[in-house]
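lol ok so funny story. i was supposed to be doing the assay writeup but got distracted and ended up predicting the structure for this chain instead. priorities right. anyway since i did it might as well share w the group, maybe its usefull for someone
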Amino acid sequence: MIIHRITRKTILAALAVMAVPAAAIAAPAVVGSSSAPRAATTAASTSAASCPKGWGSLPEANSRMTVAPVTNVRTGRHACYDRLVVDVRGRAAGYDVRYVTNVTQDGSGSVVPLRGGAKLQVVVRAPAHTTAGQPTYRPANRRELTSVAGYSTFRQVAYGGSFEGQTTIGLGVRARLPFRVFTLAGPGSNTRLVVDVAHHW
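and the output, tada:
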């Protein structure tokens, strides 16, 4: 009888242990669930902090004229901005770069259709032909000078023509974002006009 009571008591104790409610067992913690968003935010902040500062959206101009002709228009993507490059065969050209309601063609005044939330008119103070009138820049497609598919800021680059010693390019961008304009020497005796438009304010 004693052995029977001990055995029964042991079984009851074991059953009591097994009857612990499942809710009483703590769920495992999800490691890193809150640190991942913070890490992403920190990375984005660091990236933004490393981008150039002090750009604006007001017109930028240089009145210097040149007979050195435009030979090409190129674009490129960078970490903080999209870049437009105009190649000039010779002396650096002046420019007039500004946001406008509509970019217009040289001479005719016709509107240059552009995709995007804002439009930059890029006037290069250089012709797109020689002094003898021979074209030095002949885009295959005047409405799409380069492909900007996948760019963060650029939406379209179109040709506005060359008239009275200067050449116009229409640049459709995502929004009225800050930009900068400058010239670079090279390669060789050539020069480049550069327009950078930032990805963000």
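The longest helix spans residues 2-18. Helices lie at 2-18, 35-49.
back to the writeup now i swear
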